[in-house]
Amino acid sequence: MHFSTKKGFAPAIAIIIALLVIGGGSYGIKKFSDKKTKKEVPPVTTGMPVPGTDTKETEVFEKVTTLQVRLDEQNTSGESGQAVLTQIGTSTVKVVINLTGKPSTVAQPAHIHIGACPTPGAVKYPLTNVDKGASQTEIPNMTLEQLLAELPLAVNVHKSATDVKTYVACGNIVKEETKSEMKEESAVKQSEMKVVYNTQGFSPESITVKKGETVVFENKTGKRASVASNDHPTHLLYPEFDQYKTDARGKDEFRFTFEKVGTWGYHDHLNASVRGTVIVTE
Ligand SMILES: [Cu+2]
User: Fold this and answer.
1) 8-38: per-residue pLDDT in tens?
2) How far away, in angstroms, is 234 Cα from ligand 1 center?
3) Distance, CA 241 to ligand 1 centroid (Å)?
4) How far is the CA of 201 from the centre of ligand 1 (A)?
5) Mean per-residue pLDDT for 220-237?
6) Gap from CA of 249 to ligand 1 centroid (Å)
7) Domain 191-281 homologous superfamily, CATH
8) Distance of CA 52 from the midpoint of ligand 1 (Å)
9) What pLDDT is recorded for position 194?
C-alpha cells in the first residue's frame, strides 16, 4: 500500500498530529497538576524508610483490618481474655471473644457499649452470648473505620442473663493498639536485608543479620536461579533455607527469615559455584 497515492491523506495526517500534540499537552498539564495535588497531601507512612531495605509493603498495613481489645477481669470474676474485631469484606465486622480463667456454666450476654470500662453506658451493638468462654458475631453494614469514628466504645461481658448488672470482663476499643501493632509489622518489613544476585555473584557476598530478620535474595542474572544452603546438592546445612522447597520456587525473589543463629553458607543450586554467606547473630 502506498499512502502517497491517496488524495486527502496529508490533511488527515496533519489533523492526527494536531490531536496528538493537543492531547499530549493536556496530558502533561494533568500530570503536573496531579503532582501538585499530591504534594499538598503528605503521604501517610508508618515508619521511617531505611535506605537499602525493602519498604514497598508498608502501605498494606495502613488500612485497619483488625482491632484487638484486651478484656480485663471485672468484679473478681476470674474471667479475662480478648476480643478481636476483623473487617470482613467491605461491610461486615466480625467480633470474636475468647475468655479464659473460670469458665461460666451459663451463657453470658455480651455487647459493645457506648463509653469506657469499668462503667460503660448504653448498649450500642449486641453480640452473641459468650458460651464456654467463646462468642462470635458478625455485625452487618459496619466497618472498623465507622466503629473507630464512634469511640469511645467498650466490649463488655455480663455475668448471666439473670445477672446482667454484674460485669465479668470489659475492654475499651482503642485505636492505638492497632497502631502499635502496625508499627511492629512495618518494623519487621524494614529489617529486611537485600542480597542482589547478578552475573558477578551475590552482593554482598557475606551479610550479617540478627536472628528473626529476613533476607531478600533478588535474582537479576536473567537466568533461573535457586538459592539453597550448602552443601550442594543435599543442602543439609540449613535444610529449610532452600528456595526450591518454598513458595518462591522458580521466582526471582526469595525471602527467607533466619531463625537459627550460625554461619550459613549458601549457593545457587542451578550454578553451584556461585556462593555466599549469611551470618545470623543473637
Ligand atoms: Cu545445590
Assistant:
1) 555 555 555 554 455 444 444 444 444 444 4
2) 6
3) 11
4) 15
5) 97
6) 13
7) Cupredoxins -  blue copper proteins (2.60.40.420)
8) 28
9) 95
Q: Would you kindly state where each structural domain of the chain is located, as residue ranges?
A: 62-176, 191-281
Is residue 271 within 8 A of residue 225, CB to CB? The reply is yes
- CA–CA separation, 227 and 256 (whole Å): 10
DSSP structural state of residue 119: S
Q: Which CATH architecture has domain 62-176?
A: Sandwich (2.60)
CA dihedral of 176, 181, 186, 190, whole degrees rounded to 10: 120
Ligand 1 geometric centre to CA of 183 (Å)? 37
Q: Find the Cα–Cα–Cα–Cα dihedral 135, 65, 73, 184, rounded to 10°.
A: 140
- Higher-confidence residue of 197 and 10: namely 197
Q: Do residues 112 and 155 make contact, with C-beta atoms less than 8 angstroms apart?
A: yes
Distance 208 CA to ligand 1 centre (A): 22
**Element at 227 (helix H, strand E):** strand 227-229
Distance 225 CA to ligand 1 centre (A): 10
Q: If you average pLDDT over every residue of the chain, what do you get?
A: 81
One-letter identity of residue 253: E
Residue type, 7: K
Residue 21, H or E segment: helix 9-40
User: The C-alpha cell of 33 is what?
Assistant: 497538576
How would you label 136-163 residue by residue, b for 16+ Cβ within 10 Å and e otherwise? ebebeebbbeebbeeeebbbbbbbeeee
Answer yes or no: is pLDDT of 109 > 80: yes
Residues flanking ion ligand 1, Cβ below 5 Å? 228, 232-233, 269
Residue 192 binned pLDDT confidence (cut-offs 50, 70, 90):
confident
Alpha carbon of 270 to ligand 1 centroid (Å):
7
Q: Is the preceding peptide bond at 103 cis, omega within 30 degrees of 0?
A: no
